[in-house]
Predict the 3D structure of the following.
Amino acid sequence: MGGFWPVFKRELFSYFVTPLAWVLLFAFVSWQGLHFTLLVRSFVQAPEVAIDQGPIQAFFGGDVFYYLPLVVLCPAMTMRLLAEERRSGSLELLLTSPVSITAVVVAKYLAVLVAYVVLWLPTTLYVVILTRAADLDLRVVVTSYLGVLGIGAPYLAIGLLTSATTRSQLVAFVLSTMIILGLFLLGLGEFVFDDGALREVCLHLSVWS
């Protein structure tokens, strides 16, 4: 994949020099900080809740507040990847340079995936805070973050796909948001349908499970 590294470095660098990236980081960290604060407060006020799960388990998938940011965050991070290149005409220049199409797509995807991981790094402070108050199972922490990566990676792939189909960042954002939200709603079928093939499909797609 000739030309992979230049495209990867350019895309990754662009995430940290544009105002949108910092707005997303601020909004995301603020939302997750509020979410975590409310969870810890609820555990302090109702200690019996901690019998079945602790703050870490509750934070990673205990309620809808964990998933809502991903529905907006992933489309916002990916909407410009190829749509803006097509709108500005730079995509044609890029594809006529000694860079393969595969290298362009993979480099852009891995760059946005790394940026997605960076967005989650500040939340590790919550783990540090909790280790001072209680003993934590680090296996739960590690697998929870792997789950974050496992959910975000396909959502980002969907965003890259929709960005490749249009010249408009707004259209790419709306399309990927609708697809991700549709998958999210379809996954809720595991709580609606009886045992059978349809429920198995919903169970497979469900981010809750």
In short: DSSP finds eleven helices and no strands in the chain. The mean pLDDT is 83.
